[in-house]
Structure formats: structure tokens, C-alpha cells
Amino acid sequence: MQKAKKMFATSLVALLAATAFAAPSAQAGTEVSASVGVANMYLWRGYDLGHGDAAISGDLKLKHDSGAYAGIWGSSGDATGGNEYDLYGGWAGKVGKVDVDASLWSYVYPDNKGTYTNDDGEPANAPGDLMDVVVSAGYGPVKATLYETVAGDDAAESRYASVAYTKGKYSALYGQHSKEGAANPGHVQVGYQYNDNLSFAMSKFVVDSDTVDEDPQFLVSYSIPLTK
Fold this sequence. Notes:
- This is TorF family putative porin.
- Residues 1-22 form the signal peptide.
- InterPro entries: CHP02001.
- Keywords: Signal.
- By secondary structure, this protein is mainly β.
- It has one domain: Beta Barrel (Porin).
- The protein has one helix at residues 2-20, and strands at residues 30-39, 43-44, 47-48, 55-64, 68-75, 84-95, 98-108, 131-139, 142-151, 158-167, 170-179, 186-193, 198-205, 217-226.
- Strands 1-4-5-6-7-8-9-10-11-12-13-14 form a twelve-stranded antiparallel barrel. The chain has a two-stranded antiparallel sheet with strand order 2-3.
- The model has no long low-confidence stretch (mean pLDDT 87).
């Protein structure tokens, strides 16, 4: 069952990647966007994956008028897994008054030596080895998101959920890790969007555990949208 799920997920990621890099000029109703960004750390769900190192990232996205989208995101800064690129695709739109977004993400670490593993316990170096299904629903200023791991060595045990509230330039989030046999830490994060490019955030775990850094993490990030 697990191998069949992985084969399906791998095929889907390949299809999404092919869609993302098809010639956009030949497709009516599509829009291509890109951006680059820099941050003082790689802050991921409360964890500083770069162990203090800065991170540079970039994103290329193709979106159709129907709400379907696909793209690739890449970043430096993961101190244990190495450089990373993610393939993703999904659909976003409204269902009644609710904003809905459902997507599939494949995380790829070409230089990975075994920090992240696939279903067979081998390094996750290829598309489809390590994947999340991400589903979010938002109403007004409130948004709830679930990240469910569907491929990877701990696919049956690992998920992350968050609830966020945004008011103007300010935001607050609570995120909860869930993994069988782990400490399952939760964290709070508050943010301030200074302008369209510059943002600030502070995240802190709210758990008494030796498995997390309990010191607050302060994030400064700057992104630049690229237009033709």
C-alpha cells in the first residue's frame, strides 16, 4: 500500500512539474510569477534549520485562471539536509465564503546524506521521496492549515497543523507538531509585515523539552517579486 501511494505521488509530482515549466505563452489564462528572497535564518515550523545561517530562496510559479497552480521553490540554509528544492502543485479558490487551498509538495535534497529518508530508509534525494499534502481553509482573518506527510520514512506518523490570525500588517500563529513517539512541541509565532517586501517574525516553542531550542527565534526576511 505504501509503495503504491508513493508511485502515485511521484507520478503526480512529475505531472505538476511538467505543467509548471510548459511554455506559458502558448497557454491562455495562465500567469507566471517569480520572486527571490533572503532571510537571516531558515525558520521552519518553529525550528531554525540553518542553525544560525542565513538563507537565500527563490520561487517560480505558474497559475491558471481556474485556480490550478504549480511551481518550484528552492532554498539554501538547511544545515543538515543541504540545499533544497520543492516541487508543488494544487488548486486555490473559494468554496462559498471559505478560501480553500489544497496542494501536494515534494521536498528534494540533492546533497542529502541521510538526514531525511524515503519509505525504504534511504536518503530522500529524488522527487516523490518526501512529500506532504497541504490543505488550508480560511474565513476572514482566520486560517487553519494541515500538513500531512504522505511519503517518507515516517509518513504514517508525522503531521503539522497551524491556526493563524491576520489583522492588517500584524499576524499571530499557533503551530503543533505531531509525530508518534516524539515530544510533539507546539510553538507560537507573531509577525509584522512592514511593507510588501520586508517582514519580521518571532517564534517560540511552548513546551518543556530537551528536543527543542526554547529561546525565541527572530526572523527578518526580504522578498523581491520579479516581473517582466
